[in-house]
Amino acid sequence: MEIKKNMEEDIRGKLSLGIANFSSLIEQNKIYVDKTLFIKKMMDHGETYYFLSRPRRFGKTLLISTLENFFQGKKELFKNTYIYNNWDWNEKYPVIRISMSDMLSTSSKELKEEILNRIDFIASMKDIDLGENGTYVFKFSKLIYNLYKNKNNKVVVLIDEYDAPIINKITNNKLANENREILQNFYNVLKTSEEYIKFVFVTGISKFTKTSIFSKFNNLTELTLDDDYSTICGMTHNELKNYYGDHIQVMADKNNYTYEETLDKINYFYDGYSWDGVNNVFNPNSTLRGLSQKKFQSFWFSTGTPKFIAEIFKKRKITKDYFKPTVLKATELDAIDPNNINETTLLFQSGYLTIEKEFIENDEFYYCLRIPNFEVRQAYKDNLTNIYLADVKDEFDNLQNDMWDWIRNGECDKLAKKLKIKLSRLPYSLRLSKENTEKWKLYSAIFLTWLDEMGMRFDGEKTIGHGIIDTVIEENDDHVAVVEIKYSEDPKKSLDSLINESFKQIHEKEYYLPYEDRNVSLIALVFKDRAIKNGIITDVKCKIEILNHN
After folding, report:
1. Which of 103, 139, 258, 467 has the fewest Cβ atoms nearer than 10 Å?
2. pTM of whole model > 0.85?
3. Secondary structure, 3-state, 276-293
4. Among candidate residues 200, 229, 258, the one where a domain is terminated
């Protein structure tokens, strides 16, 4: 046992959780998910100015740090990465790196001073004298020129969280507008100093229409919705398995799951983000937190939600039900006007919504958006909706109460009817190619999602001492529902026979034993597909038995 413990500690020590500095990550032998192919793509593309928007905790700062070390020519740090043997490392460039995320000024005057102090500090670190006098704009311009002159090479400028001084004050219109004007003048230096600049990369959460970096840069290359860069941040399925396979196995062993079951659950909690409607990525911060703690938990609201989101929606109501997919024109998704904020755009750019698909209708380009995964859905429901989505919350509360009334009174017909309506909305193609076991997972996941939407307390695939219960639903300390789910497409099997199989399994394995100190409802929930012309109809039936142990 001691050997196994040491092995687990060694494996966990390789996680890169909380490290956004590329050199520190490599020097500490942490896992680095190789994104240098995208650096090579940008270099081959040959543009000067690049912009990338992604939500918080998605690896933007690590990407900036990777670019910094790359342009400084620190070849040995890139050993075992794609770029190592695919780049001429003889060329090195002076780098100016600025993060706006920690500029916490309470006035426009303070913001100017913070930027000026940051420029002076960078200059001193590079042994450049900018003199005593000069505005933040003048000194930034002078810093770029002097670096270019002293190093006899063009300058690389990397700006992280460019929008922080705006979004941190977005509920204060006057100050947000003043800060926007300050940044407008500051970022305009990047355009006027173009002859001295090799490369500019800017990251942020949001894209503001009236910030000069977008209105005056006619040659800005935006990567946010570029299909070729859709996985530049986050982890793909292959990256997760290739880099963190041993961690997934440790997590599986800890929770008595198989490797594939653990992978499915990581997918359910943290996957689903897409910026092209085709390629999905995992939230890296939440995924690594889950692997580190070996638990499936929701971290999104505390780590990924910008404070300005909650501040905005404290003062206004969300007007749509985002538990359902929503459609937005590409022109509306593209940017935010701080004086007239589109809530759907805001939720997309902050990571609460992601792209499900793209389509064209009447020659206009549209995006269909959805909540990406269970973790974000929980954060949205439990936090944002508790603040301001009263009408929708009441609807879910009422449905939750109805659900428990049906369970207590054995009214299975109503429960089955609601589920059948939900299943009828599934695309035909989604169910057509599924194998029998895969369809069981599909319908089970839909049932769990439905419970989640209603705010029910539940545990899917609950492991107990003598088996695994498909679902356990808890109303309170006095009442528990134990659910066994069956599916079949065998025409010889009736729904009633599936019901009998479910109850037989519940009673033979005594799934109710851990809850004998409470009232227990045993629920057999069964699904069966039947083919019709050009489609599939899913029949649903359930039956309830009440066990009163008290």
Report:
1. 258
2. no
3. CCCCCEECHHHHHHHHHH
4. 229
Q: What pLDDT score was predicted for residue 388? A: 43
Report the Cα 315 to chain-centroid distance in Å. 25
- Count other C-beta atoms under 10 Å from residue 435's C-beta: 9
Question: Are 422 and 443 spatial neighbours (Cβ–Cβ below 8 Å)?
Answer: no
Number of domains into which the chain is organized:
3
Strand 197-204 to strand 49-53: parallel, antiparallel, or no bridges (unpaired)?
Answer: parallel
What is the Cα–Cα distance from 292 to 252, expressed in whole angstroms? Answer: 12
Could you tell me which residues come within 8 angstroms of residue 13 by beta carbon, excluding any fewer than 6 positions away?
Answer: none
Read off the pLDDT of residues 474-495 as tens digits, 9 standing for 90 and up: 876 678 889 998 888 787 888 8
Q: Give yes or no for a contact between 35 and 312, defined as CB atoms under 8 angstroms apart.
A: no
526 within some domain: yes
Q: Is residue 504 part of a domain?
A: yes
* 268 located within any domain: no
CA distances from 223 to 115, 276, 507 (A): 26, 11, 56
Across 284-375, the runs of DSSP E, i.e. the strands, are 326-329, 354-361, 364-370
Q: Which domain holds residue 49?
A: 33-229
The verdict on 84 and 204 lying in the same domain is yes
Residue 196, token pair as written in the block: 């001295």
Query: What span, in angstroms and rounded, lies between the C-alpha atoms of 57 and 332?
Result: 24
**Is residue 153 assigned to a domain?**
yes
Sheet holding 479-488, edge to edge: 457-464, 467-476, 479-488, 519-532, 535-548
Strand duo 467-476 + 479-488: pairing: antiparallel
Q: Are residues 105 and 207 in the same domain?
A: yes
The DSSP secondary-structure symbol of 16 reads -
Categorize the per-residue pLDDT at 433 as very low, low, confident or very high, splitting at 50, 70 and 90: very low
Task: Give 382's DSSP letter.
Answer: I
Is 189 exposed, middle or buried, given 0-12, 13-18 or 19+ CB atoms closer than 10 A? buried
